[in-house]
Amino acid sequence: MSVKAKKHLGQHFLKDENIAKKIADTLSLKGYDDVLEIGPGMGVLTKYLLEKSITTHVIEIDTESVEYLKTNYLNLAPRIYEQDFLNYDLNTVFRGKSFAIIGNFPYNISSQIVFKTLEMRDQIPEFSGMFQKEVAQRICSKEGNKVYGILSVLTQAFYNADYLFTVPPSVFNPPPKVDSGVLLLTRKDNYTLPCDEKLFFRVVKTSFQQRRKTLRNSLKTFNLSDNLKANAIFGQRPEQLSVSQFIELTTLIEKDEN
């Protein structure tokens, strides 16, 4: 029995064992005892995780894949969750414990997977996975780069992001139309921000909604004082600011509002 890839779920099954093993080996396995694989499909990556000194859990929305895994990975069966990762409360499984995330992520929800990880950053010290190449590059890119954006800044505020390697379409069934990229996120030692975190998210998202404008124009909805808008930082465009400058910008706005 094999599982048929479903277009509406964005499934592209990895068929290259070497790449599967290479992805499994990206995790350091330090600081946690559990790993959650998202979208395991037929378990090509799962089997290499099961060889490691860690407890593997998998979450899969596709009923056919779940049946396949339960039949072929009997020991894993109690830790197979037939759920939608984006809408599932992971603490029903992990109950506040730390865990890593790994996976060959469906392209259509990969950014949302990252955003949910950021929400749970207290529990996720490490995150490794395969994305559409340009999304992986965007997450890891630095200021001054045209692909640098919301995903880059918000992720790198809390994690060190490393682009590891590129994967060609030919190693998937069916092959996607684009290259894939594997990245590793390692949570920073200090992952709390020295500013209001909700405001930081809002400032970053609002700035990039009009990325070609200067911050003076893109942040008009914040009703900033003329005195603050005279600061040189407001003459820059969002893609020119590093993560630490966005933190500095948020602190300035915070003080201006009070």
From TrEMBL:
Localisation per UniProt entry: Cytoplasm
Any one GO molecular-function label of the UniProt entry: RNA binding
Catalytic activity, EC: 2.1.1.182
Name of the top EC class for this enzyme: transferase
NCBIfam families, alphabetized: ksgA (TIGR00755)
Family that this chain belongs to: Belongs to the class I-like SAM-binding methyltransferase superfamily. rRNA adenine N(6)-methyltransferase family. RsmA subfamily.
Function: Specifically dimethylates two adjacent adenosines (A1518 and A1519) in the loop of a conserved hairpin near the 3'-end of 16S rRNA in the 30S particle. May play a critical role in biogenesis of 30S subunits.
Protein name: Ribosomal RNA small subunit methyltransferase A
Origin organism lineage: Bacteria, Pseudomonadati, Bacteroidota, Flavobacteriia, Flavobacteriales
